[in-house]
Amino acid sequence: MSISGWKKKYDEIIREFNYNVKDDMKSAKLLNSLLKSDPPIKKLKSLIENQIVFIIGAGPSISLSINILKEFQHVTKIVADGATSALIENNIEPDIIVTDLDGCDNYINNIKDKTMVIVHAHGDNYNKLKLVLGIKNCIGTTETKPFGNIYNFGGFTDGDRCVFLASYFNASKVILFGMDFGDVIGKYSKKIIPNKLLKIKKMKMAESLLEWLAMQTKIKFYTTSKMMAGFIKINYNDVKNVIRSEF
Fold it and tell me: Does any domain span residue 167?
């Protein structure tokens, strides 16, 4: 099951970016065939449900977030693809990585066995999906209709899929770091960006999806990055107060 209203949003994405639904399904079917029959959903749920969750993106401000992330090592961290490299470089262990595998070259060999990896299948990453065979705790996702071992938690890019994931499993509070959605692409995003304008367009779509999501849930959303509708803008010192108020 996917979030109510997602089908309409997916149709908008298909039209806006001229994607092919059949290509998305083809990749999803391959990923389903590669994954084990008993995906660790209970483990994933236990990391998120009723928990404060940090969402960590690969935007330029991620470098400014490192100290506060280190201070709260016990908080569940859901990390968008390339941002994983920033954490690993600073000895911060991600709990959950959300990736479509296009920015994973710098960290794929350093994923700890206990780290959950949410791998997304779409029409452009068919040839990379066999990388999941080397990942221990892997769950597959799609933007199309879920089936078999493939889930649809909602979301479009790695960054906003992190937030949709936290919402799907009912986190108590969600705090964003490095989710800037601006015109500057962070150095941890991925090595080569063939079309910067397209990348920025995707980020704008992701931002609009998160603002839509914020209207669908009672979860409290906070951001240390860009101000967005439905999110409470806080600074790094405020993070400590948000966390302490939970206990």
Answer: yes
Which DSSP helix (H) or strand (E) runs through 242?
helix 236-244
Q: Tell the residue number behind the tokens 């914020």, with chain if given.
A: 214
Whole-number Å distance between alpha carbons of 210 and 103? 22
pLDDT digits (tens, 9 = 90+) for 39-95: 999 999 999 999 999 999 999 999 999 999 999 989 999 999 999 999 999 999 999
Q: Tell which residue, 102, 103, 67, 101, has the closest CA to residue 87.
A: 67
Q: Give me 39's structure tokens.
A: 């995906």
**For residue 14, what are the domain limits?**
6-244
Question: Is residue 1, in this structure, part of any structural domain at all?
Answer: no
pTM check: above 0.90 = yes
Please report the beta strands in 72-226, taking only residues with DSSP state E, as ranges in sequence order.
76-80, 96-99, 116-120, 137-141, 150-151, 173-177, 220-223
130, 49, 131, 36: which is closest to 96 by C-alpha?
49
Q: How many CA atoms lie within 13 A of 18 on its CB side?
A: 1
Q: Are strands 96-99 and 76-80 parallel, antiparallel or unpaired?
A: parallel
Q: Which residues pair with 231 in a beta bridge?
A: none
Look up residue 242 and give its two tokens.
């948000």
**Domains contained in the chain, number:** 1
Contact 123, 26 (CB under 8 A): yes
- For residue 187, being part of any structural domain is answered with yes
Spatial separation of the C-alpha atoms in residues 84 and 155, rounded to whole Å = 19
